[in-house]
Design brief:
The structure holds two protein chains of two kinds.
Chain A (H helix, E strand, L loop, with lengths): L17 E6 L3 H12 L4 E6 L5 H8 L3 E4 L15 H12 L5 E5 L18 E4 L9 H19 L15 H15 L4 E5 L5 H12 L5 E5 L5 H9 E2 L11 E2 L1 H4 L4 E5 L6 H13 L1 E2 L8 E2 L3 E6 L3 H6 L5 H7 L2 E5 L9 H16 L9 H9 L5 H15 L46 H9 L2 H31 L18 H14 L12
Parallel strand pairs in A: 1-2, 1-3, 3-4, 4-5, 6-13, 6-14, 7-10, 10-13
Antiparallel strand pairs in A: 8-9, 11-12
Chain B lengths: L3 H11 L9 E4 L12 H11 L11 E5 L13 H8 L3 E5 L4 H14 L12 H34 L17 H12 L1 H7 L5 H28 L6 H37 L1
Parallel strand pairs in B: 1-2, 2-3
Helix pairs in contact in B: 5-6, 5-9, 8-9
The chains are: A alpha/beta, B mainly alpha.
């Protein structure tokens, strides 16, 4: 028998190891299993089984991420419906705001704990695995923790001028952050929707920065570009390719090899260039003007527009096949008028930034009357307009606190649609365009089950009935949240997975709910 | 802010020594963190009383202190039980400004009053019992999950597929002190559960299976200690013993979960009938 003192370790992934603190009332019995399987994935673990001494342990061990159970002994004596872990989560987020927390739980309703502010939410949730018949849990948990660390980086970069615009308490901004993070992990083409000034370029830069791509980030605004200019700019040209081409010049695609190319104002790309762009998106190769052979590069393409793809296709402005290729990963940046609750946070960031620029020392204090003035404005120019207004105010104020009269609204904003405060007019977008719903709710959830024959499906459900119910609910709520931006609570669905509730009753509720979501599970039987 | 402990000391300092039972002192409207929440302290008293009487069958006398004369809305569903509790002679509500004489008189009164049975509204309800069972079951399920996880790793080690992480060889308590307190609370509800499902015996059977689990865990720890103390290549037998005891522990935990499930179902049925 081999030695028990040395764990078997696969080669650790490159990069630094991640220090994890497990806080769980059963930490002693859980720790060895996590240590066994996460050590080889680049994680080092510590543990704490007492919620009351956890804060001191965090202070002492300075973990990079916390795995937190929400239920501790003594919860049964509480009459306020709260849990020791839930309270601890809030304290951790307040006292150690830079440490991301993943809630590690077995209870579905933990995932929907109603918390008032983003500052009190976890950075991720992970259902404790059953261990048996589930070999994938270590990788899934590792990914969840890495995601949470990414989320933490976003949420705690208020001093970072480039990422500051992402700070927000609205669901929409949480969604934006989540989507940027997801997009960063893939090499997929990304399409960013957003009005002028809503931060499309910043979002693209954030994706590039988080992706870890080693090449350059190149940005080009296609607005008003002529065909030849754009062709040459994107794909490059050889000497003599056209009149005035005195030298061979590399295009942006070549310059951003192993990096990211961000093309803004997609609607202004001429059809001829779109043809070449489509070939590049499909194959990764392009041909510079005047060249006789193709070049292959590894470039992530991000495009942005504030027009509906379907409208652009209908108007003949955008090739339909290219639209499909570009619409793989979508990010919608909400206009500032739809996230006015974020004004205080943005105000503080922009005051700090303006202080540096204007060499001033204005306090980032937002008086109610100043907030009122900010809230009353429509901000058609979005965060760009807000930032400029605050910079002007900081530069010119005679006070150390900005007063309403310091905030000068310039009458230069474009005339906005008037039918409705937030309704889109023509092709301008104020909400995700219809027909671009990126995710079919029924897709992965039912495909697997439907791919099984009746016998196999029955066996699968018989073996995994209860876990399956949970997985289905988690999946459905995740997808609903993804599609609608709305957080759906399991409590709201009155779904209790307590053994007291019969599986049939659960099943009927799930069926009804899934049916309402467009998913049919009529052939399933959860009876065990 | 004066803590309950400080106040209890002050109260006991003025009470005569002949008082057999020193009353428990709580603030009416403070939660366990000392923050204001209407009736939070009173509600906690109720929960504590529900956990059972002391060894001699009497309950602890209780002083509840508050800023103002207490008014509980007895018609409000959430406050009916609190109103019943305030009427129990083992409890006295005092608003600040009382004299030492009043305190001593009240202490004598509640020391006698605490010998009275709790009013029906204060006894654990089926929902109270179900809540405790649910927490215990949650813990058992967690422990079963982790024990199965350890079993999978140990089996892999026995097959030679994997070397165990050193953490697997460290001792783990069968039941932590916090979990033992939770279990004690469930055991204390045995009598109360009988009111709803006479002759059920599920709590006793849960207790028995958990004792079985502890016994297997002890053997497991002995095997673990042997493995720790041996060099390479000499621990196969003890690893196999550990696997066996982990299997036994899983069986006992499963039986305990089944017992709590049975009790929950019967309690729920009795509540519905």
């Amino acid at each position: 028998m081999a030695s028990q003192s040395r764990p078997s370790r696969e080669k650790s992934p490159p990069g630094e190891r991640i220090q994890v603190l497990l806080i769980d009332d059963e930490a002693d019995s859980l720790f060895p299993i996590l240590a066994q399987h996460l050590t080889s994935l680049g994680f080092d673990l510590n543990k704490e089984s007492d919620a009351t001494s956890a804060l001191a342990t965090i202070q002492a061990t300075a973990p990079q991420i916390i795995l937190l159970d929400l239920h501790f002994p003594g919860d049964e004596r509480r009459d306020d419906g709260r849990t020791a872990g839930g309270e601890l989560l809030v304290k951790i987020r307040r006292q150690f705001s830079s440490i991301p927390v993943v809630v590690f739980t077995t209870r579905l309703d933990d995932i929907d704990i109603p918390l008032e502010t983003f500052d009190e939410q976890a950075h991720g949730y992970f259902a404790k695995p059953s261990f048996a018949n589930d070999a994938s849990w270590p990788k899934r948990l590792a990914q969840t923790m890495r995601d949470a660390i990414d989320t933490g980086r976003f949420a705690h970069s208020p001093d970072d001028d480039q990422l500051g615009f992402l700070v927000g308490q609205t669901k929409e901004m949480h969604e934006v952050v989540a989507r940027i993070r997801t997009a960063a992990r893939t090499a997929l083409t990304v399409l960013i929707y957003g009005e002028t000034g809503s931060g499309k370029q910043l979002a693209a830069e954030a994706i590039h920065r988080l992706s870890g791509r080693t090449g350059r980030f190149e940005h080009y605004n296609c607005s008003g570009a002529h065909l030849e200019t754009l062709d040459s700019t994107l794909f490059g040209h050889l000497r003599g390719a056209f009149t005035g081409a005195n030298e061979t010049k590399a295009g942006l695609l070549e310059l951003s090899d192993k990096g990211t190319l961000f093309l803004d104002e997609l609607q202004d790309v001429p059809i001829a260039v779109q043809n070449k762009l489509l070939i590049f998106v499909e194959t990764g190769v392009f041909r510079p003007m005047g060249a006789t052979s193709d070049k292959k590069v590894d470039v992530r393409l991000i495009v942005a527009t504030n027009h509906s793809l379907s409208d652009l296709v209908a108007d003949g402005v955008l090739r339909e096949d290219l639209a499909y290729r570009l619409g793989v990963s979508l990010i919608f940046l909400p206009p500032l008028r739809q996230r006015k609750t974020d004004l205080p946070g943005l105000f503080r960031i922009f005051v700090a930034k303006a202080n540096k620029t204007a060499n001033r020392n204005v306090l980032p204090v937002l008086r109610p009357e100043t907030l009122h003035k900010l809230e009353a404005h429509r901000w058609s120019g979005n965060i760009r307009e807000l930032e400029a207004a605050i910079l002007r105010a900081v530069a010119h104020t005679n006070s150390n606190i900005l007063l309403p009269e310091d905030i000068e609204i310039l009458p230069v904003a474009r005339i906005q649609p008037t039918q409705s405060q937030d309704a889109p007019s023509g092709t301008a977008l104020s909400s995700p365009p219809a027909g671009v719903a990126p995710v079919s709710l029924a897709l992965t959830l039912t495909n697997y089950l439907e791919s099984l024959d009746v016998g196999a499906r029955y066996d699968f459900i018989k073996s995994h009935g209860r876990d399956l119910q949970k997985e289905i609910l988690i999946e459905v709520t995740r997808r609903l949240r993804e599609r609608t931006g709305r957080r759906v609570t399991h409590k709201a669905l009155a779904l209790e997975l307590d053994p007291l509730v019969s599986p049939e009753r659960d099943l009927n509720k799930i069926r009804q709910f899934l049916f309402a979501c467009g998913v049919q599970l009529t052939q399933l039987d959860f009876n065990q | 802010m004066l803590s309950c402990d400080q106040l209890a000391e002050t109260v006991s300092a003025v009470l005569p020594h002949d008082l057999a039972r020193i009353p428990r002192v709580v603030f009416c409207d403070r939660d366990k963190d000392g923050l204001f929440r209407r009736f939070a302290g009173l509600a906690r008293v109720r929960t504590q009383l529900q956990q059972g009487s002391q060894q001699d069958g009497a309950y602890p006398p209780i002083f509840v202190l508050g800023l103002f004369p207490v008014t509980v809305n007895a018609t409000s569903p959430g406050e009916q039980e609190l109103a019943a509790l305030l009427r129990w002679p083992g409890l006295a509500y005092l608003s600040y400004g009382f004299t030492a004489e009043q305190l001593v008189a009240a202490a004598r009164r509640i020391a006698e009053g605490a010998k009275n049975p709790l009013p029906p509204g204060i006894l654990p309800t089926a929902a109270d019992i179900l809540r405790v069972i649910s927490e215990v079951r949650h813990w058992l399920e967690n422990r079963l999950r982790n024990t199965r996880g350890a079993l999978i790793d140990f089996r892999s080690a026995v097959r030679g597929d994997m070397q165990l992480h050193p953490a697997h060889l460290l001792p783990v308590a069968a039941i932590s002190s916090a979990h033992r307190r939770m279990l004690d609370q469930l055991w204390a509800l045995d009598e109360a559960a009988e009111r709803f499902v006479p002759g059920n015996g599920r709590i006793a059977s849960t207790k028995a299976t958990i004792a079985e689990f502890e016994a297997h865990w002890q053997v497991l720890e002995a095997a673990r200690a042997e493995i720790r103390s041996r060099d390479n290549g000499e621990s196969t037998i003890h690893l196999a013993a550990a696997v066996r005891e982990l299997e036994n522990a899983c069986t006992a935990l499963t039986a305990a979960i089944d017992a709590t499930n049975g009790l929950s179902s019967e309690m729920a049925a009795s509540r519905g009938s």
